[in-house]
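Good morning C.,

I know you're traveling, so I'll keep this short. The sequence:
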Amino acid sequence: DVKASIARTRGIIEHHKKQAVWWRGRWEELAETDLAQQALQLREQLEQREIDLRAARNNLDKLAEINRVLKGRLDIAAPAHKKLRKQYQELGETHREAMKRQKELVLQWNTLCLQLYRRTAGRPQDKEQKKILNTWLQWREAMKQRKDATNPRHV
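The tokens, ready to paste straight into the viewer:
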């Protein structure tokens, strides 16, 4: 009975050895397949990254070209902008001077009309003087209504 038990145990051991060999082979086969799949995935990822890198380089080249073109345009536009800015400042100064001169002329006109009004006691006989005083009186009335900040002081 011991011999049969030993024989049975040896048979079981042999069977387990065969299964172990089979499983080892299967495991190696699976491992190789898994490694091959991983290698394939890595290769695909590498190829995709190379494609992405080429695209990025192309985009970088395009951006560099666009940058160069825009810089050229800026180099052209900067002096023109500077010239326009200077003209704008000059026009502003000219405008301020013109407004100052206009204010002086309005004050002088107002003074002359006031003198004419006083000299004629508000009833001129000359047709031109009547026209001047009517215009002056309408202007004064408009200034009172508008309460404009640019009114002459002696209105």
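Safe travels,
E.
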